[in-house]
Protein: 4-diphosphocytidyl-2-C-methyl-D-erythritol kinase
Amino acid sequence: MADAEVLRLPAPAKLNLMLRIVGRRDDGYHLLQTVFQFIDRYDWITLHRRTDGLIRLLTPLPGVPEDQDLTVKTAHLLRRFTGVRYGVDIEIEKNLPMGGGLGGGSSDAATVLLGLNALWKTHLPLRDLMGLGLQLGADVPVFVNGRSAWAEGVGEVLAPFDPPEPWYVVVVPACHVATAQIFSAPGLTRNNKPIKITDFLAGQQENHCLPVVSELYPEVRAALCSLGQFARAKLTGTGACVFAAFPDEAGARAAAVALESNWSVFVARGRNRSALHQALKLA
Ligand SMILES: C[C@](O)(CO)[C@H](O)COP(=O)(O)OP(=O)(O)OC[C@H]1O[C@@H](n2ccc(N)nc2=O)[C@H](O)[C@@H]1O
Ligand SMILES: Nc1ncnc2c1ncn2[C@@H]1O[C@H](COP(=O)(O)OP(=O)(O)OP(=O)(O)O)[C@@H](O)[C@H]1O
Structure:
């Protein structure tokens, strides 16, 4: 990998195992407490190094102009920050639903940051890459850091935390939730009491976005109800996806089979180390 010209790397999804809103900053961003865990479901990003400095996306996503795609923005940001003269052709194999609360766009951005840092031989430390990532989105630093985490601030103050790694059933409702719409909703509660990790482990695992998302998106409400027949069903991030944990693969697959006639659904394993870090031998 030392002088590779092409890299194909995974961009894993995340789940928010709980999400508390405990305040709001002057710039409007919300102060959160959340637990991030990765799952073994990925987008795949291929990076072809160019010597002429051009940055191109070979696989534009429906509805996302090329210059707005987070992978393209990331490559430009790293090029500006380092002054490197290389460019890149980017290919995205999209498996993660957009606007699903699985962090797909943020994870794609983190994969481009770490991948180009190797391919362009810029060798920035993870700390600098996390700082750059935060300029792209509140969820990017955890993907750059590559460890499951207890997170505070706007999601960027990360403390390592290894929850159990169960099997999950994830239901993907046929709607996209815009994160900004949920965070600007008048009905959102913004002054909830902060909790400790011990409270989380004792079962305090609510998502404070859930009441607003359920009200605005009946599909999400129905998905929670269907999945809730099998296990405690939760919302990830601001949705739209909902998930539930199962102690073993057989239980998860049985629930998924029962749900799949009515829902788009997949089974994935919780992972406390990012597959991206494993692929780059950082883990
Ligand atoms: C809800 C989470 O998915 C939990 O993991 C994330 O905090 C969202 O992270 P993200 O998608 O990377 O969010 P960003 O792209 O930074 O922000 C999208 C919009 O959501 C709102 N936003 C986001 C994060 C946050 N802590 N407070 C906010 O108010 C802001 O209005 C922002 O304009
Ligand atoms: N490479 C990308 N992949 C996905 N979405 C992108 C990308 N680049 C830009 N976007 C834009 O970002 C929006 C949010 O995408 P994403 O899939 O990350 O949502 P999400 O899973 O709800 O994220 P989060 O959990 O971080 O809120 C998309 O609707 C799209 O307009």
In short: The longest strand covers residues 30-50. The longest helix spans residues 104-119. The domain at 167-271 is CATH 3.30.70.890 (Alpha-Beta Plaits). Strands lie at 6-24, 30-50, 55-57, 87-93, 149-152, 157-160, 167-171, 234-235, 242-246, 265-271.
